[in-house]
Design goal:
The chain is mainly α. It is 72% helix and 0% strand.
Length: 211
């Protein structure tokens, strides 16, 4: 798939600080073009509200809260003990006690992170990997692992602990996508809720390992 080379190029550009703010909008544009060329739309990947949307909303919000609790009280402390360090969140140090930056961070949590990253990773990348590995149970499983690892590496600025933690998040979000019948609403809400709680914790200065 030629998209693999485009993905790699965007990662390299981001690593050399050639992209403004985030690579997510560029990856989203790549996904949009790929879908258009194949006669598909985002709704074909699960970006839609089914009739039972209220249940999906409740599941997504509850899953996000559960993910945050799992991260703060289980996986992150364990990873910190194994690696000797917490995720590097020095980029967000200026958010502590700053209401304006908190509001910007929460807005980004729901737009760039929740909607943008879920469309890119669980919607576009996950499905394209499944096209490559085969849309069978083993194929979806292999795709889930591969995409989650790359998703973790996309957060390399957070250090080793951050990469592993985001890989685990990718596995959970991908699992939610599959469990909901490949509907993106659940992982979007779970991602947004978890990141918003992170934002509030950073703002209060209580996020573990914060400089």
């Amino acid at each position: 798939m030629p998209e693999i080379f485009a993905f790699a190029a965007l990662f390299a550009a981001d690593e050399h600080h050639l992209l403004y703010l985030s690579k997510t909008p560029c990856l989203l544009a790549l996904g949009w073009v790929s879908l258009a060329l194949r006669g598909l739309r985002w709704r074909d990947l699960g970006w839609s509200l089914p009739l039972h949307w209220k249940r999906l909303v409740l599941v997504g919000v509850a899953a996000g809260m559960a993910m945050e609790a799992l991260e703060l009280f289980a996986t992150q402390p364990l990873l910190a003990r194994l690696t000797g360090t917490y995720p590097d969140l020095s980029t967000f140090q200026s958010v502590v006690g700053n209401v304006q930056l908190l509001l910007l961070m929460v807005a980004g949590s729901w737009t760039l992170a929740a909607v943008g990253e879920e469309l890119v990773w669980r919607g576009y990348a996950f499905n394209r990997a499944a096209d490559l590995f085969g849309r069978t149970t083993p194929g979806w499983t292999l795709s889930l692992v591969a995409v989650s690892v790359v998703f973790g590496l996309a957060h390399s600025y957070q250090g080793l602990t951050g990469v592993v933690e985001n890989t685990l998040d990718g596995l959970l979000l991908g699992g939610l996508y599959l469990a909901s019948g490949r509907n993106l609403i659940v992982p979007v809400l779970a991602h947004g809720m978890s990141d918003m709680l992170d934002s509030l914790s950073i703002f209060s200065g209580h996020y573990p390992g914060l400089p």
